[in-house]
Design brief:
The complex is a heterodimer of chains A (about 325) and B (about 140).
Chain A (H helix, E strand, L loop, with lengths): L12 H12 L6 H7 L3 E11 L2 E7 L4 H10 L2 E5 L4 H13 L4 E5 L18 E9 L2 E5 L7 E4 H8 L11 E6 L6 H16 L7 H19 L1 H16 L9 H14 L3 H30 L4 H28 L1
Antiparallel strand pairs in A: 1-2, 3-8, 4-5, 4-8, 5-6, 6-7
Chain B lengths: L19 E6 L5 E6 L3 H26 L5 H8 L4 H8 L3 H6 L3 H5 L3 H11 L3 H5 L6
Antiparallel strand pairs in B: 1-2
Helix pairs in contact in B: 1-2
């Protein structure tokens, strides 16, 4: 069976699944809209946690949160199912496909065979849509891929039951109830307010304060950890910021696209202006990544280079602080 | 970022046909999307991360050959895992997994436990015991 499902490539998997499932159900919701309404933008340094033997930090909200907030704010209902038994998980998936219902799945990346080897790390919060089954092969729409793809029953079971942090446990989700019309305008306002609150939060590791904290750490790393480790850590920051899924500049460009679209919908010119400003901030994040990559390319970097990029981060923190204060007033 | 500035650097990846979506503005300042084949700073970061993993694997291999650790640690590194990930795949507590790194303890493990590790790494018992048979 094959459900008539249109695949659209997106930058990030979770927004992409939301946007694609909404489009399938007749609501034209773009990826930036899903991201903005779901308050996806964030900066958070996670102390005490190491990912790939380097500090963990994120430029986005926790996996699953974007869809959850989006659904609540526009007034749709989502059904979520998790499973202990892979067999039941498969039966429930097949039942949904038989009812012509494409579903979103949370999966682990490490065993995702169509991904390039280099991208296959133990990361369990990837999302994709299953839209049909032929023989023992599932038809897969993975939002970050250019075209649709397939996975065998066995391959799909493996990624649905990947282990480790955020283990998906067969997590399957799909919208079940839609209002006649989505409350897009109200949802946009709520989404923006939430993002402003997050970014300006009085918590040392979150938002602009988190950016400042990371800047401070970068200054310390070369002395405290040695150049090799410091460079490894820097590489991790750049990867979190630019790796597949962020749309460039640590999600800042997607957010600017959202503000532009929101400005038109709400007929609010200041949002459109702020969108341009966010694009410039995104450009500076790109510059930061470029300069950081020069450091770990040359390996024998001086202390000065670390201080230099740390200052860039401080500057970004100042600009984002001013930005989100303005955004809070504009809405 | 302007649409014309969306980087099209060659990524060093084997699968160079993998293109990702970027958001950028066109000449009229309107947001649109464009595919990017890669960006150098990213490629360097990824290369470094992979190199780091390869070093860890090589180091673990040396340790196995010098009888300082068991092949379990080598296969763990080869699969980009750490102890907590491995522990959840085999369903054995972390402290026990750590203990199984000791060559002496490893030699006395029951085939039932060894099979759990072999299943997690998708190899045979023979490959688990002799790392030369692995890749």
């Amino acid at each position: 069976m094959e459900i008539n499902f249109t695949h659209h490539q997106s930058a990030h998997c979770e927004n992409g699944v939301v946007s694609n499932l909404m489009k399938h159900n007749g609501f034209d919701v773009s990826e930036p809209m899903a991201f903005g309404i779901g308050s996806g933008l964030l900066f958070c340094y996670i102390p005490f946690l190491k990912v790939n033997h380097a500090p963990a930090l994120t430029y986005r909200a926790m996996p699953g949160l974007i869809f959850k907030r989006f659904a609540k704010r526009v007034g749709i209902k989502i059904k979520r199912e998790k499973f202990k038994n892979p067999e039941t998980a498969k039966i429930r998936l097949n039942e949904n496909l038989a009812e012509n219902n494409p579903v979103g799945l949370q999966v682990g990346v490490y065993n995702l065979v169509y991904f390039p080897d280099e991208y296959r790390f133990h990361f369990n919060a990837h999302n994709l849509v299953v839209y049909g089954k032929k023989g023992d092969t599932y038809l897969i729409s993975d939002p970050v891929m250019e075209t649709v793809t397939t996975l065998t029953e066995k391959e799909l079971e493996k990624v649905r039951f990947a282990k480790g942090a955020f283990a998906p446990k067969g997590h399957m989700y799909y919208p079940i109830d839609f209002p006649k019309e989505l409350n897009i305008r109200k949802a946009i306002v709520k989404g923006i307010k939430h993002t402003c609150r997050d970014m300006l939060a009085p918590v040392p590791v979150v938002g602009v304060k988190g950016i400042r904290m990371v800047a401070k750490l970068i200054r310390k790393w070369p002395k405290k950890k040695g150049v090799k480790v410091a460079n490894h850590y820097l590489g991790q920051i750049v990867r979190m910021q630019e790796e597949i899924g962020t749309g460039g500049g640590g999600f800042r460009y997607i957010y600017a696209a959202f503000l532009q679209e929101a400005g038109k919908l709400l007929e609010n010119d200041s949002l459109t202006q702020l969108s341009t400003e966010m694009t410039e901030i995104g450009d500076s994040w790109r510059d930061f990544a470029l300069d950081a990559s020069r450091i770990y390319k040359n390996r024998s970097a001086k202390d000065d280079a670390y201080n230099n990029i740390a200052s860039q981060l401080d500057d970004l923190a100042n600009r984002e602080e001013a930005f989100f204060k303005k955004l809070r007033k504009a809405i | 970022m302007k649409k014309s500035d969306v980087p099209q650097d060659n990524s060093s990846l084997k699968s160079g046909d993998f293109k990702e979506l970027c958001y950028a503005v066109n000449e009229d300042g309107e947001y649109t999307t464009a595919n990017s084949s890669g960006w150098e700073p990213k490629t360097i970061a990824l290369d470094n991360a992979i190199q780091e993993i390869n070093e860890r694997v090589a180091h673990a291999k040396d340790k196995v050959i010098n009888n300082q650790t068991s092949p379990i640690e080598y296969y763990m590194e080869l699969h980009k895992m750490d102890i907590s990930i491995l522990s959840s795949y085999v369903g054995i507590w972390k402290w026990r997994v750590k203990r199984h790194f000791k060559p002496k303890v490893f030699q006395n493990l029951s085939s039932k436990i060894l099979q759990k590790y072999a299943d997690a790494f998708e190899i045979t018992l023979d490959q688990l015991k002799n790392i030369e048979h692995g890749d």
